[in-house]
Amino acid sequence: MVGGGVIGLSCALELTDAGHDVTVLARDKLADTTSARAGAVWFPFRSAPAARVLGWGARTFERLEALTADPETGVRMQRGRVLHRTANPDLWWTAAVPSVTTIDDPAELPDGVVSASVCTVPVIDMSRYLPWLQAQCDARGVQTVRRELTDLDEAFERGDLVVLAAGLASNDFADDADVTPIRGQTVRLKNPGYFEWTLDYGNPAGLTYVIPRIDEIVCGGTDEEGEWGLELDPAVEAGVLERVRALIPELRDAPITSRAMGLRPGRHEVRVETIPDAQGRPVIHCYGHGGSGVTLSWGCAEEVAALAGALSDQI
Fold first, then answer.
1. From residue 247, how far is each of 139, 198, 200, 252 by CA, in Å?
2. 267 with 287: CB under 8 angstroms?
3. What pTM value is reported for the model?
């Protein structure tokens, strides 16, 4: 397994539970992964194709909902709303959500918002969830080696099959011109006791979202395709806070607790398929999830395990 973020660890668990011996080769510590910077509300963002995303997303929804029984996971079911600023919004994602209601009373909506889709979905505190995933891997005997690879030869020295799930870094091994960064900047506020998430993707002033955790609230954000820089921009942060506080006045006086910048692994389609390398060795590719890594993680991991099972019969 190449990659130790939410996709890599989820795949490692599924493969181990399917009877495979798994070693995770990860460049970054958990806290330094893109996954650790995610706002992490269940919602398919910047991912395609729709049919496969819905299937992976629906299955992940079920798996995450089941994990809410264990508070150590950091997964909770929370009510929230997706704001729509145009009539007849595309609600394709609602097919994977058990229940969605619509608000269209202007008195209940922010200025400029035509309607809102209200639903309860998993919200994941990545500061708890990633360590929980790692602990589950450790308990099952998954070996984790933290080092940077230059090619897949070392991975093949440890097994007959490689799963490439390294997010944006997957391009270092797959030579996939379709992989591109989608930069996202967030600022986190101390939670004053507010627990409803809000997604406002059509905000004319910029992408806006509010994702409450127990102790803090993740506020974003940006959606900058092709941008690699990781330096925080104070002007961007000021814009995010202005938009967030306009939507949710309860957060006007909440102090800043931390900041983050991450590079989502963009691709025209999420790639989950088996493609042999130049030497004919089997490689399962699982990357390009855009802003939907957590949202699609278990569904993709189950498909990876199925692909690995089929390959095991041939190796």
1. 43, 9, 9, 10
2. yes
3. 0.96
